[in-house]
């Protein structure tokens, strides 16, 4: 093992999943210390009453069930009214209109990721992924025998894409590049100009852009959310999204795979046939959830969105303030969107912590606080902190992280 560091059962040689590592951390919690468990690890705020979905969404689902019209199978690509509603919802922010045929309803954004990679797979293909990133991409690519190549996101530039790296990595077998905006795990929101540069780079390299916009509209900093599909006439864009994050209903499993491609690269009959065939084997979300989508997308009140944005902004502010008090971690870029932030570990101020994994396992054991080691998202000796939790949990979690630091700090550093 590297440096003889304890790896706490984490197999860093293979693809790590966030859920996998979080369950190992949970198992490491010492119940005898009687502390309530605080998880800043998982991006599912629905566990906290302050992050509650809108009654509009709940009523839409109840109505759909009670109508008794949606107990049967839906078309495998999704109900027509659901596809139309998603096309209209996304078209609000685009310079062209999407049609229902551009939209395929998936079981969450996770399945949309799988569809995108399945559709792009061919012998020898490679895909460019951001680092840090979202491990599901690597996992899906692995099952499809697609090679993954990583380009860095640059913390000192607000986690912008290293465009030079993209140029250097791409070759004739590169099928696409993934852009997650607003960003997970970094909490960044890209400017229009940066997205334009990404689109121009992809166009020059003749690769398409897979735009993971599962956090679409969850932006609370200086940059507004700009969908990549705006550049769909320059370069074909596959837009992936879901209700999970903006509506705080990840368990409803309602997502979409959308060809944001007004020039029609995806409208070739052979391509459409292939996509449709693939959906025949998938089985999307429950029909009544699909049936609720038009009402949810058309009727959700602006105040619900504003409230969520305000909660996330306040939580991220608390998070950044508390982080400043903990000397072993620092935040190079204040989050402007999504639900998580990356912070850098400074191991040189710690006495007996070998790396991010060791930090997180000891923190779980001693303080019953769960934080995701950066290794899980591709960045060793960083941590991903999810701030979309109840503010009292967030404060207590970071207070305990601070006392953990103080117990493990190098003594000469604590004194000065
Ligand atoms: C949460 C998340 C997903 C998965 O979304 P679901 O709708 O829950 O399947 C995909 N991509 C990113 C970046 C995410 O954070
Ligand atoms: C880590 O902390 C030490 C001691 O405070 C400091 O000198 C060093 O610059 C820090 N390193 C980083 C990368 O922040």
Automatic annotation (TrEMBL):
Cofactor(s) essential for the protein: pyridoxal 5'-phosphate
Key words of the record: Aminotransferase, Pyridoxal phosphate, Transferase
SUPFAM superfamilies linked: PLP-dependent transferases
Gene Ontology biological process terms in this record: L-tyrosine catabolic process
Alphabetical list of Pfam families matching this protein: Aminotran_1_2
Xref: InterPro entries: Aminotransferase_I/II_large, PyrdxlP-dep_Trfase, PyrdxlP-dep_Trfase_major, PyrdxlP-dep_Trfase_small, TyrNic_aminoTrfase
Gene Ontology MF terms in the entry: L-tyrosine-2-oxoglutarate transaminase activity; pyridoxal phosphate binding
Family that this chain belongs to: Belongs to the class-I pyridoxal-phosphate-dependent aminotransferase family.
Protein name: Putative aminotransferase TAT2
């Amino acid at each position: 093992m590297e440096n003889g560091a304890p790896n706490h059962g984490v197999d860093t040689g293979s693809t790590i999943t966030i859920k996998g590592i979080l369950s190992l951390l949970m198992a490491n919690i010492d119940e005898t210390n009687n502390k309530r468990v605080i998880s800043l690890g998982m991006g599912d705020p629905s566990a906290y009453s302050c992050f509650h979905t809108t009654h509009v969404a709940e009523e839409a689902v109840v109505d759909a069930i009670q109508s008794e019209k949606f107990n049967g199978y839906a078309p495998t690509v999704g109900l027509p009214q659901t596809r139309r509603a998603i096309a209209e919802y996304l078209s609000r922010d685009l310079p062209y209109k999407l049609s229902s045929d551009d939209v395929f309803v998936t079981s969450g954004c996770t399945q949309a990721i799988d569809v995108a990679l399945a559709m792009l797979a061919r012998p020898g293909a490679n895909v460019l992924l951001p680092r840090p990133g979202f491990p599901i991409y690597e996992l899906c690519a692995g099952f499809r025998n697609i090679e993954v190549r990583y380009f860095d996101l640059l913390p000192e530039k607000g986690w912008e894409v290293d465009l030079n790296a993209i140029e250097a990595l791409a070759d004739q077998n590169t099928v696409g590049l993934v852009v997650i905006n607003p960003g997970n795990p970094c909490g960044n929101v890209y400017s229009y100009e940066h997205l334009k540069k990404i689109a121009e780079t992809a166009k020059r390299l003749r690769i398409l852009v897979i735009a993971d916009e599962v956090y679409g509209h969850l932006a609370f900093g200086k940059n507004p959310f700009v969908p990549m599909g705006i550049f769909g006439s320059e370069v074909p864009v596959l837009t992936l999204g879901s209700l999970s994050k903006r509506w705080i209903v990840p368990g409803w499993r309602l997502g979409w795979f959308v060809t944001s491609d007004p020039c029609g690269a995806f409208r070739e009959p052979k391509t459409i046939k292939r996509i449709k065939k693939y959906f025949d084997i998938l089985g999307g979300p429950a029909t009544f959830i699909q049936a609720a989508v038009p009402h949810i997308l058309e009727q959700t009140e602006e105040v619900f969105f504003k409230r969520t944005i305000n909660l996330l902004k306040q939580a991220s502010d608390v998070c950044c303030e508390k982080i400043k008090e903990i000397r072993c971690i620092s935040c190079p870029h204040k989050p402007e969107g999504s639900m998580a932030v990356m912070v850098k570990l400074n191991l040189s101020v710690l006495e007996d912590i070998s790396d991010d994994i060791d930090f997180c396992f000891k923190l779980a054991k001693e303080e019953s606080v769960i934080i995701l080691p950066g290794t899980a998202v591709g960045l060793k000796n960083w941590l991903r902190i999810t701030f979309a939790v109840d503010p009292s949990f967030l404060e207590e979690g970071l207070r305990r992280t601070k006392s953990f630091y103080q117990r493990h700090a190098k003594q000469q550093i604590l004194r000065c």
